[in-house]
Amino acid sequence: MALTIEQPGLLTTVQDQGRIGYYHVGIPQGGAMDQESAQAANKLVGNTAVEAVLECTYTGPAFTVDAPTTIAVTGADLPVLVNGEERPSWRRIELAAGDAVKFGVLRGGARFYLAVRGGISVPEVLGSRSTYAIGRLGGLDGRKLEAGDVVPVGEPTGLLPEVEEIPERLRPGFGRSLELRIMWGLYDHLLTDEGRRRLVEEEWKLTPVADRMGLRFEGPGVEWIQRRQPFGAGSDPSNIVDAGYAVGSIQVPGGTQPIVLHRDAVSGGGYAMVGTVISADMDLLARAAPGTATRFRAVSMEEALQARHERAERLEEIWAL
C-alpha cells in the first residue's frame, strides 16, 4: 500500500511524536508540531499514538492510493476532496484503489494532519520516523515531499475504533486571536521593568516568518537594561555567552521582536531566553496562522503543571472514545 504524490503542497513532511533523547548532541525532538491533532487522526484510523502521519503546512498534497485504505484528516479547517467530492475532516474516510485526494484552501489554522491506516512506513532514524530536514534525517530521504514520491504505508496493527469522528468538544479552535501561557526564563532579569511589562501586557502579531524551528512575532518591542556585555557574547543587547535552549524558549534576536522556538529548534546558542511557552500550549502555537493577534501571559510552575495535566486528560479522552 502506498500514496503516489502528484503535487506535494508547500511543506508536507512525515512526522510522528518525536525523536526524544538526542537534544544534548544537537538533534531536536521534532515530531508533529500540533501533536494533539496528529494523535486524533491516528485514533480515527486505528493506529497507535506513535504512528507516523503527514504534516501539511498551509497547502496540502494531491495524491492517489493504490489499494483500499482508511484515512483521516485533522487540524486546520479546510476542504478534503476525494475524487472532487468534499468529505469532512475530523472523521474517518474510506478510500478505494485509485481514489484521488486533494485539499482546498485553508479556512482557519496553519497545519493539518493526514493519518493513513497502518501509518506512514518509512525507516526509523534514532527511534523516530520524523523528518528533520536541516539534518537530512528521517521521513522520506530526510526532506519534504516532492511530486512523484511514492510514500509507503504499513500494515494495520489494530482494529478500527467504533467511533468514526472526533466530537466537537475535543476539537481545537482556529481563531484569529491567541493567548499563550509562559514562564519567565533564565534571562528575564536582563529586561527592564517596562520590557517585561510589554511582553506580557501588550499585543503581538504572528508574522509569516514562521516554520518548524521558530515563529516570529512583531509588536511594541521590548527593552533591555544597560549592561556591559560579558566576554564571549556579541554586541546585540540580547546576546549572552552560549546556553542551552528549551523547546518553547522565547528569544529576542535584534533586541526587540520575539521568536518562539518550536519542535525543530537548535539546542543552544547565544541569545537570552526571557521566557518559555509552557508545553501544554505548544500545540496552540502550531495552529496559529500569520496575522494571529497574540498575548503572552505569565503563569506559575503550579499553573503550568496543571495545564500539562489537563492536556494529558484531553488526550486520554480521545483515546478512550
From TrEMBL:
Record keywords, A-Z: ATP-binding, Hydrolase, Nucleotide-binding, Transferase
Keyword Cell membrane: no
Keyword Manganese recorded: no
NCBIfam families: urea_amlyse_rel (TIGR00724)
SMART domains: AHS2
Gene Ontology molecular function: ATP binding; hydrolase activity; transferase activity
Protein's name according to its UniProt entry: Biotin-dependent carboxyltransferase
Positions of the Carboxyltransferase domain: 24-314
Classification via InterPro entries: CT_A_B (IPR003778), Cyclophilin-like_dom_sf (IPR029000), PxpC (IPR052708)
Origin superkingdom: Bacteria
Annotated organism of origin: Kocuria rosea
